[in-house]
Amino acid sequence: VAAAGFTFIKANSQQHPPARYFRVNSKILIFLVLLQGAAVLLYSSWYVQPNARSSSKTEGKVHVLLLSSWRSGSSFLGQVFSQHPSVFYLMEPAWHVWTKVQKPGAKLLRMAVRDLLRSLFQCDFSVMDSYLPENHRASSLFMWTESRALCSPPACSITARNESQCRQKCDVKGLQKVEKACQTYSHVALKDVRLFELKSLYPLLQDPNLDLRIVHLVRDPRAVFRSREESAKSFILDSSIVLEQEDIPEAEVQYKVMQEVCHSHLEIYETVILKPPPFLEGRYKMIRYEDMARNPLKEVSDIYQFVGLEMTKQMEEWIYKKTHGKGKGTPMQAFQVIPRNATQVSEAWRTMLPHSKVKRVQEVCGEAMELLGYRSVHSEEEQKRLDLDLLHFPWFS
Ligand SMILES: *[C@@H]1O[C@H](CO)[C@@H](O)[C@H](O)[C@H]1NC(C)=O
Ligand SMILES: *[C@@H]1O[C@H](CO)[C@@H](O)[C@H](O)[C@H]1NC(C)=O
């Protein structure tokens, strides 16, 4: 631009009287000096930028946070990501934070979980040093064989056919190979059942290095309650963290935890629907377990579209097999995910759970249930009449 400007003045100088030429030229010169200054600035910032640029854009990489709570079908949805060939998936990295720190509360650990997620989304596994034993390996990662990416190249030298083969062949030393593998995928997906609000994620949503999409999976609290009761022992540590180490009678613990879980649904609803910050737009999607159980292919297709993943023939087949009775032939058969008859299981609480307990759960979770489209039952008869559909369609569908 500057060079062209000078040529223009020289051409003019031959046709105009000198005095006029100088007057005009001094003005033009000032303009040109400014212009050149701007050009130099522009050039130097452009020159400096390649680094800043490549790290400030995410290079098309998408970061998916699968946000859920215990016993809500998140293992299945996690596998829907893990099995996809474009996804690097880790199940529940926040488990490491929650189990490492002694006698903490969920609030105290929130920021540590947030920072762990941020580093892992960027494939920086050095953050795990704080939580893993010395001389750690791939197998030091919680439920590592749930990640197809960790059981196939480049993280592993072979493509493992099943879980036991993955354990045998893919347990590499250190996390360097894992980190390298993470970098090769277009999508990094992390599952987390240990966050109860969105606000601590705001810095991640605003981070120019991340393109974060939040998939929030919820489930009928009565079904969650029944499922948690079945394996209450495995929740002792988590429950005391959720309840901030409060001293609560054993019979009350499950209800209190459900209350916290339901409260988190309400809080997230308020954030997303009533006063969403601008950076949340297009980055949050809520999914109900029951909708997924009734129409898995459609729900998963919607989720894939939301995060920019292609639905493949293999994934369609995988989803069908996992949600429709027994199926043989998928390489990862041993990787246990969704119950065989998804519809049946999503309604099991109606016959298995005593009505007195159903009433208690409805008391602590009533507001959230209304919001999410789960009808309350008002008698044992209503509860057991399976022809009564308790799902309806709330705001988000
Ligand atoms: C896992 O796959 C390997 C290799 O195909 C096979 O030899 C082994 O029997 C399989 N194990 C199970 C438990 O299916
Ligand atoms: C699954 O359970 C539902 C409800 O009990 C039933 O209608 C359906 O036939 C079952 N499907 C299979 C494949 O067993």
UniProtKB/TrEMBL annotation:
InterPro entries: Carbohydrate_sulfotransferase, Gal/GlcNAc/GalNAc_ST, P-loop_NTPase, Sulfotransferase_dom. The chain crosses the membrane at residues 28-48. Its main location: Golgi. It is an enzyme of class 2 (transferase). One of its GO terms (biological process) is sulfur compound metabolic process. Keywords: Carbohydrate metabolism, Glycoprotein, Golgi apparatus, Membrane, Signal-anchor, Transferase, Transmembrane, Transmembrane helix. It comes from the Eukaryota. One of its GO terms (molecular function) is N-acetylglucosamine 6-O-sulfotransferase activity. Residues 63-372 form the Sulfotransferase domain. GO terms for cellular component: Golgi membrane. It is a single-pass type II membrane protein. It is found in: Golgi apparatus membrane. Its EC number is 2.8.2.-. Gene3D superfamilies: P-loop containing nucleotide triphosphate hydrolases. Belongs to the sulfotransferase 1 family. Gal/GlcNAc/GalNAc subfamily. This is Sulfotransferase. It comes from Kryptolebias marmoratus.
